[in-house]
Amino acid sequence: MDKNTRICIIGGGPAGLSAGMYLEKKGYNNYTILERQDRVGGKCWSPYYNGKRYEMGAIMGVPSYYAVHDVEEFCGITHDGPKLNRNYKNAAGEVIEPFARTLGNIIKNPWMLKMKGQLKKFGDLLETKYKGYDVNGHRGVAEGRYDGYAVTPGREKVQGENPNLKDLALPFKEFCEKNGVPLVQKIWIGPFTSFGYGYFDEIPAAYVLKYLDFQTCMNFVKVNLWTWEQGTQYIWEQLNDHIKHPARLNSAIEKVERHDGKVFVTVNGEVEEFDKIIVTAPLHIPGKRADGQKGMDEYFDVRDDEKELFSKIDYERYDVQAFLTKPENHPEISYYVFDNMVPEKLGHLMVYYRRWKDQIDQVITTYALRKHKNMEEIPYETCRQMVQDDLKIMHNPAEEVINEWSVYYFPHVFSEDYAAGWYDKVEAMQGKYDTYYAGEVMSFGDMDETAEYSRELVERFF
Ligand SMILES: Cc1cc2nc3c(=O)[nH]c(=O)nc-3n(C[C@H](O)[C@H](O)[C@H](O)COP(=O)(O)OP(=O)(O)OC[C@H]3O[C@@H](n4cnc5c(N)ncnc54)[C@H](O)[C@@H]3O)c2cc1C
């Protein structure tokens, strides 16, 4: 492609900004990033309280966040944040120890022994039967192939046939049962469901395992995690400061029309002309959202194939609240509430996060899901109250909410559409209308997978 190609990028979150960085690295300097909000970072949102930044969105990374590491290198920053630590409570607010931590405890506990056996088996199965399961993105999976880049520092291109990969379309619960390892769900559930990615009886195993590949999941178990002192938003603010064309904030896109080999974008009342467009903003949002966010199918001249495929996308209703507590009610550490990570406890508090070890006057953030595929959605206000009531049960009462949002979170498709080749159909459309699709739904809803997908998109098409 001509290096002077005029490229419009919609969205100044991790996917959009890293698309800009990778384009620039490849010699494309004629790109424009349009961001609807008055800040960059998207779901990496780190507001200030009392001189320090807290996290309303993304919190952590793992050592295999290679694309995020590219950004760190590009900007000369590093993951210098507070060490994460957590403990566990049951639904009654009692501190529990779900995993025996010492060998002596394991030997006394037959359940733990069984779990260890299944974990070992699962690791072996992923390496052998499911070879290729962990490449970024979903190309070929539904057809029993893998085609992408390895999750290694060198990110080698890997391709191959493996019919077993079709199993990844199954909900994760079914996938584990089919493989005789149901107990491993107890380990995967913490960094999956409580982080808002849905329930194991509804979400295809592909999403679970591409995000939490074996190594990454073990990093969560060992709390071998990265954070950033200035918050995750800082990573993307820094990137925005270091690229040649920072995102244009407060860009209200009214219309996008594609014809005659050109892309016409009406932004803040003016029509601008481009050659190509990369969409990292939501492709489809079922229903209306209070924050005014729209799917691209509402402001683009969408074609029938785009409309049909994107209509299959659903997302999680993941609510985050930031509370102030009295010093005597402050949790001494972050807590996971495992009992609340099942559909029967929809709307309840699943995790709450204390960020700064030595600071008493700080906000505590809480996380809850209020939608399951087969259940009635819990209204936002009801869920908010449930979370406050749960904090009392946890012995950490807090009434003063200083910040809150209901996130358009983890766009994905369900098993039937996954198995029917949704990803291969969308991948086949890349570039067709001078349009490229990137961002969370194309890979997975975390900082690294989205940035990595942008890297690959630039590698493959530009
Ligand atoms: C509570 C929470 C916790 C999380 N925890 C983690 C974590 O610990 N680790 C991790 O790696 N990830 C985490 N994530 C997920 C991570 O933040 C996202 O996956 C990542 O930000 C996705 O990047 P993106 O660029 O694809 O989308 P987004 O971050 O959503 O960015 C999209 C951007 O597009 C803009 N936009 C939308 N519509 C338009 C439009 N019409 N015109 C112009 N601009 C538009 C938006 O304003 C936004 O800035 C978390 C997210 C949340 C909410």
Describe this structure in words.
With 462 residues, the chain is of the alpha+beta class. The chain has helices at 14-25, 66-75, 103-108, 110-127, 172-178, 185-192, 205-211, 214-221, 232-242, 304-310, 380-393, 415-419, 422-429, 447-461; strands spanning 7-10, 31-34, 48-49, 52-53, 86-89, 95-96, 145-149, 157-161, 253-259, 262-267, 270-274, 276-279, 314-324, 334-337, 351-354, 363-369, 400-412, 435-437. A hairpin with a 2-residue loop joins strand 9 (253-259) and strand 10 (262-267). The chain is globular. The N and C termini lie close together (6 Å). The model has no long low-confidence stretch (mean pLDDT 95). Bound molecules: flavin-adenine dinucleotide.
Outline of the structure:
With 462 residues, the chain is an alpha+beta fold.
Spatial shape? globular
Mean pLDDT: 95
- Helix/strand/pairing category: alpha+beta
Which residues sit in consecutive blocks of at least 5 with pLDDT less than 50? none
Physical arrangement of strands within the biggest beta sheet: 6-5-14-15-16-13-17
* Fraction in helix: 25-40%
Question: Main beta sheet: strand number and arrangement?
Answer: 7 strands, mixed
Query: What proportion strand?
Result: 15-25%
Task: Please count the beta strands (DSSP E, at least 2 residues each).
Answer: 18
Compute the number of helices.
14
Structural Rg = 22 Å
